[in-house]
Design goal:
The chain is built from seven helices and 15 strands. By secondary structure, it is α/β, with parallel strands linked by helices. The protein folds into two domains: 124 residues, Rossmann fold; 109 residues, OB fold (Dihydrolipoamide Acetyltransferase, E2P). The strands form four sheets. A five-stranded parallel beta sheet has the order 2-1-3-4-5. A five-stranded antiparallel beta sheet has the order 10-9-8-12-11. Strand 13 and strand 14 form a beta hairpin.
C-alpha cells in the first residue's frame, strides 16, 4: 500500500527536491511528482489527487504554510509533511494540520518512520464501508447486516424499511442518520429513499415517474426530480 501512494515534493531548490525524491525512491516509492512553487503545486493537486505532499516552508511568492492552509478547503486534502532547515516553524506547521515535520538535511530513517505512520493512518481511513454492519429487525430477530447486502432504504411511517439480499427488514435509524453514517456507500434518490450506489443498474420511465433499477433487487424505487441529476451522474460514472 505504501509504495502505491501518490507523492508530491514541493521545494523551490532543485537540489533539495532531487535529494528527497532519491530518498523516496530508495524507500520503494514510485509515484512521485515535483513542483518548484506553491502555485505549481496547487495546480498539480487540483488536476491529480495526491496522498502526501512534502512541502518546503520557506519559498518565494507564497510560502508552504499558506499553501497548506488553502489545501484544507479541499474535499479530500492530502497529508502534508513540512520540510525545512528551520526548526522554529514546527509549531506553526502543526497549526495548519501538518501530518509530519522533517528538518533538512532529511534523515532517511526518520523519513521512513514518518511515512509509515501516515501510510498506516491513510490505510485505516480507507477501510471500506463494507466492514460496517447495520443492526436491524428481520423475521422477528435482531440481525447485523453488512452494508453491501443492502440495496435500498425506504422511509415508511416511523421506520425505515431495508431491502437486502437477506430479505426485508426494519431499522429505527432515520435516513439522515444512515446517510451520515454510510455516506460513501449510499445515494439519495428521493426524500424518502436511499440506495446503495454500488448496485445502480439503470433508469426506466413509468407513466410520469422515473424509477431506478437496482441489481439483485426486485423493487424499483421512484427517483424524484430533485435528485435525478445526481443519480444520472452516478450512473454515468459507472459506465
Amino acid at each position: 500500500m505504501m509504495s502505491s501512494l501518490a507523492l508530491l515534493v514541493v521545494d523551490d531548490e532543485p537540489l533539495a527536491r532531487n535529494r528527497l525524491i532519491r530518498l523516496l525512491k530508495d524507500l520503494g516509492y514510485g509515484q512521485i511528482d515535483e513542483a518548484s512553487s506553491a502555485a505549481d503545486a496547487r495546480n498539480q493537486i487540483k488536476s491529480q489527487a495526491m496522498d502526501i505532499v512534502f512541502l518546503d516552508v520557506r519559498m518565494p511568492e507564497e510560502d508552504g504554510l499558506s499553501l497548506a492552509k488553502s489545501l484544507q478547503a479541499l474535499d479530500s486534502p492530502p497529508s502534508v509533511i513540512f520540510t525545512t532547515a528551520y526548526d522554529e516553524y514546527a509549531l506553526p506547521a502543526f497549526d495548519v494540520f501538518a501530518a509530519g515535520f522533517l528538518l533538512k538535511p532529511i534523515d532517511k530513517h526518520r523519513l521512513e518512520r514518518v511515512l509509515e505512520r501516515i501510510a498506516n493512518k491513510l490505510e485505516t481511513q480507507r477501510q471500506p464501508e463494507r466492514n460496517l454492519r447495520l443492526r436491524c429487525q428481520m423475521k422477528g430477530a435482531t440481525v447485523y447486516l453488512p452494508i453491501e447486502s443492502i440495496r435500498l432504504f425506504q422511509a415508511e411511517d416511523k421506520y425505515v424499511v431495508i431491502h437486502s439480499t437477506e430479505g426485508v427488514g426494519l431499522t429505527d435509524k432515520s435516513l439522515k442518520q444512515l446517510d451520515d453514517e454510510f455516506a460513501d456507500s449510499l445515494l439519495r434518490i428521493h426524500r424518502n429513499a436511499l440506495v446503495n450506489k454500488d448496485f445502480l443498474s439503470g433508469l426506466k420511465k413509468v407513466a410520469n415517474e422515473t424509477h431506478l433499477l437496482l441489481s439483485e433487487c426486485d423493487v424499483t424505487p421512484t427517483v424524484s426530480r430533485r435528485f435525478l441529476p445526481s443519480v444520472k451522474k452516478a450512473l454515468t460514472s459507472l459506465a
